[in-house]
């Protein structure tokens, strides 16, 4: 546990201090704030419930900001190999899974910082207009159910996939996936948009809106109908769980492979 | 995209839809892939100091690498378009060359410029992702606004070769060339690229 916390803390501090994380997050989040249009949260009537206001902001930020997190985390494991420190790290007493889990937790925490900051800044701009302190509480809820699960899923894949394909190829596939799996209407092409597996937080945002309308495409008919239940509080919770668990799958596979490699190579090294 | 198009054609979902997917592959996926590769070429170099000590200017080295990327892209796209045409699909006017070359030049030039200025793959790839997804997300705005139309990467996929297509392609080609010239100007001082690690 100590090793896990140490790796997570080091990873967190390293990522959180990267200027590119903050500049990219401001670039992507700022573009959405500027270009949100009349359907954006800035144009909601003053009597709109706090949870709906915050839900709309959370959805707005989760449309593009996770791209910055994926780009940032894409070279975390590859970098160890590139700098030739991987064998050194493998020789340490803790299991490879601990290092992976620590990098994952630290990366998620670091990427969560700009996500939380964006929501709190949005709430700070809304408070003088709406005079509703519940906005702050709902911002934390929105961060937990919309922002954080998406970051966890992105982090899981961004850490592991570039070790199988190259980093540039992962970035191309990631951007393409983000459009196909989150924003492409299921009627146009078979896609994962509107399913429980949508890391943009469609189901959770729909629950937060609480006005009977879907945030984007949650529950819209399409392929894999069993992943498209009607949006409710229960399905929103299920979506959060499924998104996080799905993000852990590549980590589990990578940890298993690393453990097996260590067992196979250790006697030969000895 | 070709596999998706074949699947759509085989499942009987429509020749027109399969054709649209093929065009989207050329006009959408190729520029994104080439842009990500281009920014990596500009930023990632483990032996930059060694290159700076050689008689060949570093700008020429990067230019040659980008040239190889361009040659591979041309070869792959020509084969892709030729196979599509032989299979009975229409991939745009004139064999579809301008369908992919114009947005590819623009986005790759933009990626190279941001990479040269920022020296960060994270920042450059985020900027490319923002432009690519933003143009898809706000496509109607780009179509409706005459000032933005020359910057619209997905004109053929969205509107076919309707009026304004040629102007859009010329605008993208010109913008791409401007970006590449600006990138070259930045790379004329290659010592700016020196950094210990991607920030």
From TrEMBL, chain A:
<keyword id="KW-0812">Transmembrane</keyword>
<keyword id="KW-0472">Membrane</keyword>
<feature type="transmembrane region" description="Helical">
    <location>
        <begin position="104"/>
        <end position="124"/>
    </location>
</feature>
<feature type="transmembrane region" description="Helical">
    <location>
        <begin position="236"/>
        <end position="258"/>
    </location>
</feature>
<feature type="transmembrane region" description="Helical">
    <location>
        <begin position="204"/>
        <end position="224"/>
    </location>
</feature>
<keyword id="KW-1133">Transmembrane helix</keyword>
<feature type="transmembrane region" description="Helical">
    <location>
        <begin position="136"/>
        <end position="160"/>
    </location>
</feature>
<protein>
    <recommendedName>
        <fullName>ABC-2 type transport system permease protein</fullName>
    </recommendedName>
</protein>
<feature type="transmembrane region" description="Helical">
    <location>
        <begin position="172"/>
        <end position="192"/>
    </location>
</feature>
<feature type="transmembrane region" description="Helical">
    <location>
        <begin position="53"/>
        <end position="74"/>
    </location>
</feature>
Automatic annotation (TrEMBL), chain B:
<protein>
    <recommendedName>
        <fullName>ABC-2 type transport system permease protein</fullName>
    </recommendedName>
</protein>
<feature type="transmembrane region" description="Helical">
    <location>
        <begin position="66"/>
        <end position="91"/>
    </location>
</feature>
<keyword id="KW-0472">Membrane</keyword>
<keyword id="KW-0812">Transmembrane</keyword>
<feature type="transmembrane region" description="Helical">
    <location>
        <begin position="170"/>
        <end position="188"/>
    </location>
</feature>
<feature type="transmembrane region" description="Helical">
    <location>
        <begin position="20"/>
        <end position="43"/>
    </location>
</feature>
<keyword id="KW-1133">Transmembrane helix</keyword>
<feature type="transmembrane region" description="Helical">
    <location>
        <begin position="97"/>
        <end position="115"/>
    </location>
</feature>
């Amino acid at each position: 546990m100590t090793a896990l916390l140490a790796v997570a803390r080091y990873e967190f501090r390293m990522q959180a201090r990267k200027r590119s994380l903050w500049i990219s997050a401001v670039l992507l989040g700022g573009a959405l704030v500027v270009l949100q249009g009349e359907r954006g949260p800035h144009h909601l009537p003053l009597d709109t419930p706090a949870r709906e206001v915050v839900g709309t902001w959370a959805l707005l930020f989760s449309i593009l900001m996770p791209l910055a997190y994926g780009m940032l985390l894409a070279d975390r494991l590859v970098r160890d190999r590139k700098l030739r420190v991987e064998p050194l790290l493998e020789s340490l007493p803790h299991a490879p899974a601990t290092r992976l889990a620590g990098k994952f937790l630290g990366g998620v925490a670091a990427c969560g910082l700009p996500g939380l900051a964006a929501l709190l800044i949005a709430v700070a701009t809304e408070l003088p207009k709406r005079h509703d302190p519940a906005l702050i509480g709902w911002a934390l809820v929105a961060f937990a159910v919309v922002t954080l699960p998406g970051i966890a899923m992105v982090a899981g894949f961004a850490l592991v996939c570039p070790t199988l394909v190259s980093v540039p190829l992962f970035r191309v596939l990631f951007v393409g996936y983000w459009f196909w799996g989150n924003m492409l209407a299921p009627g146009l092409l078979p896609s994962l948009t509107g399913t429980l597996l949508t890391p943009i937080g469609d189901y959770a945002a729909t629950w937060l809106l609480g006005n009977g309308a879907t945030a984007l495409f949650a529950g819209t008919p399409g392929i894999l109908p069993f992943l498209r239940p009607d949006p409710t509080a229960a399905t929103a919770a299920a979506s959060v769980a499924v998104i996080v668990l799905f993000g852990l799958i590549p980590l589990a596979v990578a940890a298993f492979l690393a453990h097996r490699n260590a067992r196979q190579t250790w006697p030969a090294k000895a | 995209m070709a596999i998706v198009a074949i699947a759509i054609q085989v499942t009987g979902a429509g020749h027109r839809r399969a054709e649209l997917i093929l065009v989207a592959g050329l006009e959408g996926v190729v520029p994104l892939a080439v842009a990500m590769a281009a920014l990596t070429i500009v930023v990632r170099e483990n032996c930059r100091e060694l290159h700076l000590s050689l008689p060949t200017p570093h700008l020429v080295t990067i230019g040659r690498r980008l040239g190889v990327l361009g040659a591979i892209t041309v070869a792959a796209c020509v084969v892709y378009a030729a196979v599509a045409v032989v299979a009975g699909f229409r991939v745009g006017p004139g064999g579809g060359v301008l369908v992919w070359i114009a947005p590819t030049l623009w986005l790759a030039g933009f990626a190279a410029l941001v990479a040269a200025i920022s020296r960060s793959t994270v920042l450059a790839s985020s900027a490319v992702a923002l432009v690519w997804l933003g143009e898809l997300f706000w496509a109607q705005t780009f179509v409706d606004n005459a000032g933005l139309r020359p910057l619209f990467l997905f004109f053929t996929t969205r509107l076919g070769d309707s009026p304004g297509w040629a102007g859009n392609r010329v605008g993208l080609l010109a913008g791409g060339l401007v970006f590449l010239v600006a990138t070259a100007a930045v790379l004329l001082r290659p010592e700016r690229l020196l950094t210990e690690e991607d920030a």
